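Journal club prep, shared notes

We agreed each person brings one worked example of a sequence with its structure written out as tokens. Mine is YggT family protein. I'm keeping it raw so we can talk through how to read the token line rather than staring at a rendered picture. Sequence first:
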Amino acid sequence: MYYALRTIELFLYALEILILVRVLLSWVPRAYNNPFAKFILQITEPILAPIRKLIDKSIFGGKGNVLDFSPLIAFLLLRILQSLVNNLMK
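Then the structure, token by token:
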């Protein structure tokens, strides 16, 4: 059981790193032409797209938003999941 929970914890941590890399790539012009950047987009988009849809449906959403807050919310959700996994490992 410990190894399964540890694997889940490492997976969640890897997702955090990938989302952080995606945020940093968004600051670089024309970075998405790179195959590495396309890989990062493919991995992180299934996580961020549903969060974006929820933000658009909320009172904070709507077209014309300049900032994308979905990575921040994803970080918070991943941290909550990591905390739950850590509590199960104890």
